[in-house]
Amino acid sequence: MNYTLSKECKKMLQMQNINLRKANCNEIDKILTVFLKRMQWFRENEIKQWSRYLEHHSKSEFEEVISKGNYFILEKNNKIIAGFELSTDSRYWNDNKTKAYYIYKLITSVGNKKLGNIIFEICKDIAKVNNKDFLRLDCLSTNQKLNEIYERHNFKLITTGCRGYYNYSLREFKID
Questions:
Q1: Predicted confidence (pLDDT) per residue in 128-145, tens digit
Q2: Is 175 helix (H, G, I), strand (E, B) or coil?
Q3: Mean pLDDT throughout 34-48?
Q4: How far is CA 152 from the centre of its chain?
Q5: How far out from the chain centre does Cα 86 lie?
Q6: CA neighbours within 13 Å on the CB side: how many for 1?
Q7: Strand spans (E) along the chain
């Protein structure tokens, strides 16, 4: 996957002293620590999200995604502040024909604001460079705040569904 960024996106990262790169397998514990801290923050703030996330997404799953070159991290001052998977795997969408990237395992570190905005701009840039028509993601359908955030970023609700324990919303962004 080519992840060349536009001049505008590079400038945005540079102005905030943020580095984007693909993750290495030897960083899994650091990445999982960011998840654990966010999960603790959710509990402390009584947000019903990811209470069992790492039970359903094992360390070996992260290893596989990273070894395929599909997990990206954002760093500031040599510290991981965010991460996300960008993949052509359509897990919940069951669509292998549409030219799309799917965003999974998106995490931002506690105390760092507006990183989601940066991640979405990066994903849009990568999708454009690689001639994709859509960015797609899924989220817990009952998480109203997260659904509102995605809506503000123009990820339109396509459908909802349920798979086992997971009641989800499927959302997509049309790449211009």
A1: 999 999 999 998 898 888
A2: coil
A3: 81
A4: 16
A5: 7
A6: 24
A7: 19-22, 71-76, 79-87, 100-108, 134-140, 156-163, 166-174
Dist CA 34 CA 158 (whole Å):
30
Please calculate the CA angle 75-172-105 and round it to the nearest 5 degrees. 35
CA–centroid distance for 109 within its chain: 12
Alpha carbon of residue 24 to chain centroid = 17
> Considering the entire predicted model, what is its pTM?
0.90
The 3-state DSSP class for residue 35 equals helix
Q: Which residue has the higher pLDDT, 123 or 49?
A: 123
How far is the CA of 31 from the CAs of 44, 72, 78, 113, in angstroms? 20, 10, 13, 18
The letter for the amino acid at 136 is R
Are the C-beta atoms of residues 100 and 90 closer than 8 Å to each other? yes
Q: Determine contact, residues 80/24, Cβ cutoff 8 Å.
A: no
Task: Give the sheet arrangement for strand 19-22, strand by strand.
Answer: 19-22, 71-76, 79-87, 100-108, 134-140, 166-174, 156-163
Taking residue 60's Cβ as centre, other Cβ atoms within 10 Å add up to 9
